[in-house]
Amino acid sequence: MAKASMSKRRQKGGEEAAVRERILEAAFAAFMKSGYATTSTLEIATRARVSKRELYALVGNKQEMLIACISERARRFDVPADLPVLRDRETLEQVLTSFGTKLVREVTEQTANTKLL
User: Fold this and answer.
1) Residues of the chain with pLDDT under 50
2) In angstroms, rounded to a whole number, what is the distance separating the alpha carbons of residues 37 and 46?
3) I want to staple 23 with a disulfide (CB 3.0 to 4.6 A). Which of 46, 48, 71, 85 is the partner?
């Protein structure tokens, strides 16, 4: 019986994580479209297809949503631990190309997501 309840908790946690991610994606798209000040929590909840109660329970207030959105995107740009030492022009070129590719992917991915929402 303990295993069954543990499995249900994991499933619920996974569902909550997916809903939280959906809320943050909706929040980011709304912030990009209308700006932080004019975006309402009702608009975010509507975009994410959740109640405002669920929005507050899973993410928090609008400021916490903005912080979570920014933090998630900043994590994607973390410098990898195995970054080569920049000793020559070729290595610098490889690192800058890699960073530029990540940057373009993030910018275009959000543009595509915003159009879908």
Assistant:
1) 111-117
2) 17
3) 48
